[in-house]
Structure formats: structure tokens, C-alpha cells
Amino acid sequence: MIYTYLGPAGTFTEAALLQVPEARDSERIPAANVNAALELVRTGEADAAMVPIENSVEGGVSTTLDAIATGEPLQIMREALVTISFVLAVRSNIDTIDQIRSVATHGHAWAQCRGWAESNMPNAEFIPASSTAAGALGLLEDETSHDAAICSPLVAEERGLKVLRTSIEDNAGAVTRFVLVARPGPIPAPTGVDKSTVILPLSEDRPGALMDILEQFVVRGVNLSRIESRPTGEGMGKYFFSVDVDGHLAQERVADALSGLHRVCPNLRFLGSYPAAEGLSSSVDAHNSDAAFSKAQDWVSGLTARLATS
Ligand SMILES: O=C(O)C(=O)Cc1ccccc1
User: Fold this and answer.
1) Averaged pLDDT for residues 28-48
2) I want to staple 104 with a disulfide (CB 3.0 to 4.6 A). Which of 131, 146, 182, 310 is the partner?
């Protein structure tokens, strides 16, 4: 297996990939951005890509949500959670925070440290970087565009960067969720604690269109753990929903909800069922259990078997 990830080495995404035991001893290709990583998978140059999808402070990572919702189909094979803490690293000629005029980092890292940055270095300009590690490595270049970088403690240590402050995140304990994405293939077997992701384009702009979608989950007792709307890019007012649910395709209530969704939203895209990285809180009522579905199906089959043939 060849793995790719949002690089360069030292990103939080690499930390997420290293949680995958098989990836530790495999070839790992750093990609310049999320789209480049997914493209390596789509073309077959890599077998799977680890990419950030959501964090507990800033919400969804739009680039990833959009890239896996469209184009050549991809499948989520697993998820990984990383608790994120940031440091402020600087060029060697900077000694105090007041000297910092510009700070480079990934947009989601900036969002998680914005409060600290605005209070402690109000005059520093934010320079968007393709990743926290890319911003950090820029500090080592002669012709660098920035004085400081917000990055992981690990990359600062590994690259011998000067660190002026540690733990500068506004919310201690913020978690980012990453997904390992591959070309569509076998769906991982249920573990008992699983999630499924589905993309639901709103085909019609009419009252109740979202209700029709949500109803499919509600009546089968399927809990949603994430729902986000994203513009399709096809014009104002055109949206798709990206939804995570508790449960696996192998469970009747999830499969039945997908079947209902296919009727109200025929262009839906199933992105996979995979083990949840942490325990899920939702419980299943007896009438939504596999046994209840199976009994109900048997009962209806018994009735349809009695249908007159002519
Ligand atoms: O830039 C990185 O290191 C990443 O892996 C993306 C990211 C940025 C900020 C929080 C979580 C992930």
C-alpha cells in the first residue's frame, strides 16, 4: 500500500496517518494540498489519502468536503482523531513577539489561534500556508515571506525552530478529525461502533426538501453526528448536504434509510461505512433493531406471498 497525506512531513495530517498501523511501515507520499493528495489516489499513484475533514472549533474543512463529494467516486475507509496544540515558531533573528510582522499557517490553525494572535500580536499579518508544516519550513528559507509560523510542537522540535510560545490555541483540547480515503472497494465489516457518510444533493429547491431527507433518518432511529451544507458551485441557492450517521450499511435501519434517501434524493453518493474513532452515544430503540426489521420484512413477505397472481 502507498499512502499519501497533506504534507510536508510534520503536519497534523501526518500524525493522523501514523495512527494507522499499516501506514507506519509503508511508503508515505506528502502532497502539497488536499486536492493533490486525492488526485494521487484517483490516478492510482497512491492507494489511500489521509486528509483533514472537520475540527471541533472551526467546523468542516471545505476543501475536503467538496473534493470527496464530487469528481471520481472515493470511499472513506476509516477516521482518526488528533488533539491539536499549537506553538509559535519564529525566524532565528526574531527574539520577541513585538518584532513579528507576519505569521504563516494553515487557515484552520489560524482559526484556532485567532483570539490569542489578535490579543498578543495584533499587528501581525496572517499569511495563509498550505499546511502548518509548510509555514514552519518557510522560516528556514533565506528568502522567506514571514517572520513566524503557527505549527505543531513536533515539527518545531524536529526542524530545530525557535519557539516563543507554546499552547497558543484558544480552546485547549480541540480535536481535528481526519479521514482515510481510497478508491471505492470492499466496505469494512461492521465493528459494532461504526459511522457512515453520505452526500445528499438537494435536487429541488422547494419547501420541505430538507425535511424529506431528515425524515428518512428520524423514522428509522438513525442518529446524525454531523450535517453540513455546501454550495455545489452551480449557482446561488444550490446546495448539497454532507452527513455522518451513527451506524453501518450492514445494519438494517441504515440500509433502509439509504434506500429511502435514494427515492427522495436519487443523486446521493454513499461515501462509506467505517469504524468510529470513539464511542458513539446514540442508542437504538427495539423497534429499529435488525431483529425488528427482519421480523417486519418476513411479515410483509408472508402477506405478498398471498397476492393473487392474475
Ligand atoms: O496543516 C496541518 O498540519 C494539517 O494537517 C491541517 C490542519 C491544520 C490545522 C488543524 C488541523 C489540521
Assistant:
1) 97
2) 146
ipTM of the complex: 0.97
What is the mean predicted confidence (pLDDT) over 170-195?
Answer: 96
Query: Is the C-beta atom of 84 inside 6 A of ligand 1?
Result: yes
Q: Can you give the CATH number for the domain in which 203 is found? A: 3.30.70.260
Per-residue pLDDT of 200-254, as tens digits, reads 998 777 888 899 999 999 999 999 999 999 998 888 878 899 999 999 999 999 9
> CA 74, CA 270: separation in Å to the nearest integer?
9
DSSP 144: -
- Quickly count: other Cβ atoms within 10 Å of residue 168's Cβ: 19
Let me know whether 21 and 144 are in one domain.
Answer: no
Identify whether the C-beta of residue 11 lies closer than 8 Å to the C-beta of residue 18: no
With beta carbons less than 8 A apart as the criterion, state whether 249 and 271 touch: no
Q: Cell digits for 249? A: 450499511
> Is residue 306 one of the residues assigned to a domain?
no
**Domain encompassing residue 109:** 87-166
d(Cα 273, Cα 278) in Å, to the nearest integer?
A: 15
Residue 135 near ligand 1, beta carbon < 6 Å:
no
Pull the grid cell for residue 111.
Answer: 482559526
Task: Please tell me whether residues 117 and 204 are part of one structural domain.
Answer: no
